[in-house]
Structure formats: C-alpha cells, structure tokens
Amino acid sequence: MNSEAGPSTERKDDGPFGPLQYDESGREGGKDGKAGFSDVQVRRGELAVLKGAGASVIYEMAVRCFLDLGRPAVLVDGGCQADPYEVAAIAKRLDRERREGTRGGNGGGNGNGGCGEKGASARARRVDEDEVLRNIHVARAFTAHQLEALIVSRLPPMLDRIRPAFVGVMSIDVLFFDEELDRYEARIMQVRCVRMLRRLARDHNVMVAATESGGQRRGAMRWW
Predict the structure, then answer these.
(1) What is the pTM of this model?
(2) Contact between 31 and 149 (Cβ < 8 Å)
(3) Does residue 6 belong to any structural domain of this protein?
(4) What letter would DSSP give residue 58?
(5) What are the tens digits of pLDDT across the range 49-81?
(6) Does residue 187 sit within a domain?
C-alpha cells in the first residue's frame, strides 16, 4: 500500500494519501465482509466516535458511500489496519445484497449512515472491486505526531481537492497511548485532531467517523 505518512510515499497531487491497493501476496479468499455495527448511522456535518468498533465498520461506510453516491472516501489509518482484501469482500457482499434486494429501501436518501441510494440503478450496477479500491484514499500514521499532522495539516487540502462523501479515521486514540509521550501533550494532540475532524465535518457537510478503543463499553457512540 502506498499510503504511509513519510515523505518517501508522497504523491505530488495527494501528498501522503494514496488508493488502497493489494499487496504482492495476491487476493485472499474466505472473508465474508461482515462489518458488525451495521445499524450505525452517521450524520452529515458531524463527527461520530465509535467506541470499540473495528476497522471494518469504517470500510463499510466508505464502500457504501462510493456505491450509493459515486464519490470517493478518505481514510486515515492510526492502527495499521488498512486491508484491501476486507474492503473488496465488503464490496462484494453489498453488491450481492443489492442484487438480492435484501436492503431494498435502506438509506432512503436521508443523508445518514447508508449515504442514500440513487434508486434501482444504484442497486443494479455491478461492483468493480478495483474501482472501489481506487476511490478509497488512505494515509497511514505510525506515530502520534504523524497522525496529528495527517489530520490537522494534510487532510483539509485533500478534502478540498477530491470532495469525498465520507472521511474515516481508524484507531484515533491508540497512538496517543505511547508511553514515551507526555500524557498532557498526548491529550492536547488528540484534542486538536478531534476538533479538526469536527470542523471538517461541519465545513464540508461530510460524514466523518472515527473508531476508538478505550473507555466506554463496546458499541457506544459519541457525537462531537
């Protein structure tokens, strides 16, 4: 995946962000693409922090927005979780569900979690998993400072350039648990990230969701 935060992976147009890609090991099978948290609703213009959710929840939101709206998604990976095989499996499952009509009216175009389908044509279009992966732009952070830089400095111009339908952050808190970080500094950095995500959601009227590992019971959702 050409998605690291360091300068060696930067592209002239997208900076550290790049399309989600398969690695050299080939395409894996056996994943059913089930994300869990399937009933989570994310509203445009707000940041939803999902306690205890896995990366698959973010993947499903990103894929749904692309399939329903035809617009890209932008992901920031703070937990080394970017997995193109799981994204492809989710795309295949959603395609199968649409064709079987199991989710006929889900989403309803209300601007919430399902992104809103464009009607029968959206359900009838066969999914091209490579096209899905090309439209999910991801950047990876390996330190708390890299994560802050990606969200605070690099994410805003990326949103201005590609106008995504969805922004997702995987593991927004894990890197800030680094024992080498001063606790107060880590807290300030995390607050900057959350404030920026909240501002981007509001200014771009975009759906923004982040997964978080600690604190409340699994499955809780917090709105910022």
Answers:
(1) 0.74
(2) no
(3) no
(4) H
(5) 998 888 899 999 999 999 889 999 999 999 988
(6) yes
Task: With beta carbons less than 8 A apart as the criterion, state whether 81 and 89 touch.
Answer: no
CA 91 to chain CA mean position, Å? 14
Q: Is residue 35 part of a domain?
A: no
CB 126 within 8 A of CB 134: no
1 is a domain residue: no
Q: What are 25's two structure tokens?
A: 């090991």
The residues pairing with 73 across neighbouring beta strands, listed in sequence order, are 136, 166
Total domains present in the chain: 1
3-state SS of 113-180 is CCCCCCCHHHHHCCCCHHHHHHCEEEEECCCHHHHHHHHHHHHHHHHHHHCCCEEEEECCCHHHHCCC
CATH number at residue 117: 3.40.50.300
Of the candidates 28, 93, 38, which has an alpha carbon nearest to the alpha carbon of residue 67?
A: 93
> What are the tens digits of pLDDT across the range 141-185?
999 999 999 999 999 999 999 999 999 999 999 999 999 999 999
Which structural domain, as residue segments, surrounds residue 169?
Answer: 40-223
